[in-house]
Design a protein that fits this description.
The chain is about 30% helix and about 25% strand. It has about 425 residues and is of the alpha/beta class. The protein has two domains: about 1-95 and about 265-275 and about 295-410, FAD/NAD(P)-binding domain (3-Layer(bba) Sandwich); about 125-245, Rossmann fold, CATH 3.40.50. α1 packs parallel to α9 and α7 packs parallel to α8. Bound molecules: flavin-adenine dinucleotide. Flavin-adenine dinucleotide (FAD) binds near residues 12 and 13.
Amino acid sequence: MKFDVIIIGGGLSGLTAGIALAEAGKDVALVSAGQSTLHFGGGSLDLLGYDEQGNEVKNPLDAISNLNGNHPYKKIEDVSRLAGVAKKVLERAGIATAGEANHNHWRVSPIGALLPTWLSLEGMATVEDAGTMPWKRVALVNVVNFLDFPTKFLAAGLRNRGVEVDVKAFTLPELEQLRKSPTEMRSTNIAKVIETNNLIAKIANEVNDIAGGYDMVLLPAVLGIGSSETSRHLLKAIKVPANYVATLPPSVPGVRMQTLLRKRFTALGGTFFTGDQVIEGNFEGDTLKGVKTAKLDGTTLEADNFVLATGSFMSRGLVADYNHVYEPALGVDVEDLGLDRNTWSKIDVTESQPYMEMGVKTDSCLRCQRAGNTIANLYAAGSILGGHNSIKRLDSAGVDMLTALQAVNNILK
Ligand SMILES: Cc1cc2nc3c(=O)[nH]c(=O)nc-3n(C[C@H](O)[C@H](O)[C@H](O)COP(=O)(O)OP(=O)(O)OC[C@H]3O[C@@H](n4cnc5c(N)ncnc54)[C@H](O)[C@@H]3O)c2cc1C
């Protein structure tokens, strides 16, 4: 089977690249092994939250120009333009977001921290300025016995910023069914029960009964797996201003993003090989001719260009053994930290962890290398790239989407 481009990995970076290429009229196939880390995301997309000195960033575009030379943003020709393109890619997939690349706002994390971010999905709780809280009295309204919405942490975080917080909870007979098995009481299951049983009006009644006198109601983001319609309806039906806060994983807004991006990719004519894994590349000199997958026995998927977007350690885009870190699908070169494993991490977990900076080696056009040679038609995008610490910088989604779009531009040139 032959395509114009094959994308390996179906997370945020792979899907962004796939959609942008399909929008440009390319015949694209995407092979993806399993769930992506979007399922863990917080309902916001970060561009650059903290600079290299650890200071909060107000204007990511300004701060990006001061990053060190290894950061993946240094391989992006026009960060501002591509940030605008990224927002439009999401919009056309049905993912409405608020936010601008030159002006961070602050999202409320599942454990009550306020974090600088770039784009937030509609309905998510955000504030314009972390120094001036817009809410005086907040009701944190949980579903009874839902443990992945840590209200104690959330309340403490908001109270530390001078907000008066009351913790409340509601339940309905349909939700009580889930409580019979504690493992069922997860965000995605709650979303399914609410949507299947059409419980929005009932939930709005419950919340309205307890929401009087508050200037903000914060709810766990457990609505809208397939689209934001139900989550939007609930907020409209609540009589005071209300927003959602991301829960601990699985993240319903993250699953929704994954679903909508995938839908958009296939609607554009993209071919999705789901639940399959690239296990080998067929290289001829400095060109990748095709890839073999675990399930398509005997068939090579061929293309003119390839994008490697298999993620970092969590998604097995990178793998560590006792002696080295390697890229398992195509055997491309990895920027690691040498053989001494003791240098890979630090005992104090709050410190910047060196392994976070590991990633595949690329040239200035994001092309991978293999045994020291640049592969002319193999580009890397997303969290498989090294050169930055996404936890310390809060720059994950920006790196994923912008490197994907830059790789696409380089392919289309
Ligand atoms: C707990 C958590 C919370 C987060 N919250 C946020 C947030 O609030 N905001 C934010 O901006 N970012 C957040 N992130 C980071 C963000 O989710 C990731 O940076 C981003 O999703 C990575 O995208 P990716 O496409 O590069 O890789 P991944 O999402 O890891 O996707 C890679 C995909 O490739 C597949 N794959 C791997 N190997 C192969 C193979 N050989 N063949 C085929 N497929 C393969 C994997 O199965 C996976 O589906 C969070 C991450 C985590 C873990």
